[in-house]
Amino acid sequence: MGIGVSRRSVLKGSAVGTVAVALGTKASAVPTGSADIESPLIFHSPEFEPFCDQLPSLSTLSGNEITLTAQVGQHAFHRDFPSSPALSYRSGEIGGGYLGPTVEAHSGEPIMLTFENDLTGHPLAADMDMTLHGMQADFRANPPTSLHLHGGVTSPESDGHPELLVMPGQAAMHHFSHGQEAAHLWYHDHAMGITRLNVYAGLIGNYLIRDEFDTGKLGNPLGLPAEEFEIPLILQEKIFTPTGAQNGRSTILIPEGSWEGGAVGDVGLVNGKVWPELSVARGLYRFRIVNASSASVWNLHFSNMMTFWVIGNDAGMLDAPVAVNAFRCAPGERYDLLVDFTGLSEGSTVELRNDEAPPLPAAVIGEVTMPLFCRFRGDSRRGFTGGVPSQLRGGRRQRDVLAPLEQPTVIRTVTVSQQLELRNPPAQMTLNNLTFSTTDVERPRQGTVEQWNIVNTTPDPHPIHLHLVNFRILGRTPMRTLEYLIRHPQPVIGNKWTPSPDGFEAGPMIAPAPWEAGMKDTVRVDGGTVTRIIVRFPTEDELGFDPDAMFDRLPSAVMTGGGMTGGDQAHQGNGHHGMSNHDASNTGRLQGYVWHCHLLDHEDHDMMLPYRIVP
C-alpha cells in the first residue's frame, strides 16, 4: 500500500495546500503522520493515501423505458484496498458494483421505469436493527427495497412509499411524468427501517431532467458548460474497516445490530472513491452536487477560498448566479455550481473541502470534522471558454423569473424533537412527537398555500424533505428553546405535540441565504430555531393524477405484524409496531406521501410521518 494519511493529517495539511494553490505552485506532498489522539469510543478508518484514484465518471442512461436492478456486488473504494461487498443499481450492462447510472430525462416526456430487487443478502446485514418499525427476521438474507425519485413530481403509487416494499425476486413499475422544469433529482432507496443501510451501501443515483433551456448540450440557451464540462458529484462520508470494507457503525458504545442515531464518517468519497482527483481543463465547469450522506451538514469550499457560483438548487435554476466562497449543504440537498479553473496552471491543484464540525452527539464521543472530498489538478487542455451568465431567468430564451412568495391561507406548526433522556441506544427521534404508525397525519388541501413553521427543539440541524411538493424558504428565527420546553412540556411519544413558537423568539427572523432562493424540496432546519417555509399543494388537475389515491402494496409485503420483530417494548419502550395501519382495513392498501428528516438514521427511527393532500 501507499503511505497512509489520516483525516487529521489531511486537515492539518490543508494550510500547506492552500498556500500552494494561492501562489500557483506545484502541489506539495500531504503530511503523512499525526500525533493527535483518536477517541477510543468511535471506530476509525484505516489510513488512505489521498488523490491516487481518478474521479469516476458515472455512466448515463436514457430512454422512455428503463429497467434498474438492485444488486449485491464488489467495489474497491480505494486503489490500495481490495474490493468488498456493496450495493448498486444496474441497467443491463450499464452500472454495477456501487451506486447507479445517471438517468437523463426530459421535462414533459414520461418514462416507465421498472425497478427489480435482485439482492442476495446485504453487506451491512449485521447492522440491521430488528426492533425498528416494520423490520422482519429474514430481512438480513432477503433485504427489502423501495425506489424513491427524490424531488420528483410523482404519483403516489410510483413515489417509493417506504411501505411499498419490493422484496428479492419482485419488481415494481414506476411512471415518472416529469411535469417539472429542468432540475437535478436523485433516486435512492426508501425502504422502511432500512433506508440508512441500503443508501449507505450504495443504492443511490443521479436523475437529471432537461428542458428546452437547460439542454445538457453545448450551445444551450443559458450558455452553461455541458457534456464533458458538466459533472455530477455524489458526495458521501464513510467509516471503513481495516480491510477497506464499509463499516455501518460509528461507535463501540452501541452494540452491533442496534440503531445508533447517526453514523458520521471520517473519510470523504466522491462518486464512490475515497479522496479522488480530477484533471481539469482551463475553463468553466458545471458541478451537480448532491449531499448523499447519512448524517452530516457540510460547509463546502475550495482550499484557496476562490469564488465560485451557485446557479440552482433542488428544483431548478435561480434567477441569476450567486457568487460565494462557501455554502452549507445538508443531506438530501442538491446544488448546481459553476467553477472557473481558467487560472489553475498546469500541475497546480485545488481541493474541495469541508470545515463544518460534526453534530453535537457525534462530537461528544470524539468525532472531528471530515475535511476533504477531492482534488482538481490543472492540465494543458483548453476547456469551456464561455463566461458565467449574468442571469438565468427572465431573459430571451429563458424561463420566467421566480414568482414572489405567495400569501399563505393556513399556518401550520410542526415539531422536530428528541426525548430529553440519557439512554443507550439513543432516544427516539420524532416529528410532532408521533411515530410512523399514527393516523393523526397532516392533511393540507389541494390548491392551498400553507406556511409551515418547523420548530426544532434539538441542538442539531435536521434537513426536512417533503415528498411531491416544492416550497420556498421564508426564513429562520432563533428560539428560546428551554423556555419553550418548560412552558410546553413534551408528552410521552404518541401524543401529538405542536405548540406554537410565537412568543419564544430569541431574535429577528434571518432570511435564507441567496443560494437557498428558488424552489426547494429539502430545507435545513437548524437547531434551536423555527424555520418557516411557504408551500403550495397542487391540485389533481394540475398534476394529472390524484395525489390522494389509494394504491396496493406488492403481495408478499402485505403484512399484519405476525412476521415482524419490532414491537412496543423495543428500545425500552420507544420501539415500533409492525407495518402501519394507514389503511383501516389492513388489506395492503396505502395512501398519500411522507415527509421526514433526511438524516437517514433519524428517518428510520422514527422521524418520518405520512401526510395526505386531500381534495
Automatic annotation (TrEMBL):
PROSITE patterns: TAT. GO terms for molecular function: copper ion binding; oxidoreductase activity. Coiled coil: none annotated. Pfam families: Cu-oxidase_2 (PF07731), Cu-oxidase_3 (PF07732), TAT_signal (PF10518). InterPro entries: Cu-oxidase-like_N (IPR011707), Cu-oxidase_C (IPR011706), Cu-oxidase_fam (IPR045087), Cupredoxin (IPR008972), TAT_signal (IPR006311), TAT_signal_bac_arc (IPR019546). Residues 142-212, 419-536 form the Plastocyanin-like domain. This is Tat (Twin-arginine translocation) pathway signal sequence.
